[in-house]
Amino acid sequence: MKKYIVEFIGTFFLVFTVGMAVRSGSPLAPLAIGASLMVMIFAGGHVSGGHFNPAVTLAVWLRGKLLLKDVIPYWIAQMLAGLVAGLLVNLLLNRIQMPADHNVVNSLVVEFLFTFALAWVVLNTATSKGTLDNSFYGLAIGFTVVAGAFSVGGISGGAFNPAVGLGVVVMGFESISQLGIYLAANLTGGAVAAFAFKQLVED
């Protein structure tokens, strides 16, 4: 149960940061979001692995570093955290937000690519023998999200994470149809990253 609570806490603060930073209109919102993920990984990684993302959980399970019995509870904790964070942002700021309009194909492509990149970095920095016990994994993972948010956030909303996707839909940033894009592209990106890792790196 401790692992699941830590996954909830880390995912909550990630999604809460997304909502508050984006609604504030800060040009440094991507940096705040990546930093939030980084510190939550450093805080909770030793307990739960610091996934805070259903796509990462899928990748880590496919890589063989997570038990099947933990996958669904991780997903529940992560998605519930995204929902709660989204509702709290709405409560605190009480603003009406118009959903963004994104091109479906472009969204699918960039969400797949940067979720692949995120899961690929997680697997290589946090699960590989070649980088065992390093001190940089949280920074590498967090800055993958920073890079993605700055470069393609305007194309897809820059979720790279179904829990973030749920949160931004609840906050009104994205339409419910965009959540389907996040689920499909993010989970596929995580799965393909695990396959690539197993073929190219696994030791």
TrEMBL record:
Residues that span the membrane, as ranges: 31-62, 74-93, 105-123, 135-159, 179-197
Compartments (UniProt record): Membrane
Main localization of the protein described in the UniProt heading: membrane
Gene Ontology cellular component annotations, sorted alphabetically: membrane
Membrane-topology descriptor: Multi-pass membrane protein
Keywords (A to Z) from UniProt: Membrane, Transmembrane, Transmembrane helix, Transport
PANTHER family (alphabetical): AQUAPORIN NIP1-1-RELATED, AQUAPORIN NIP2-1
The name this protein goes by in its record: Porin
Gene source species: Rariglobus hedericola
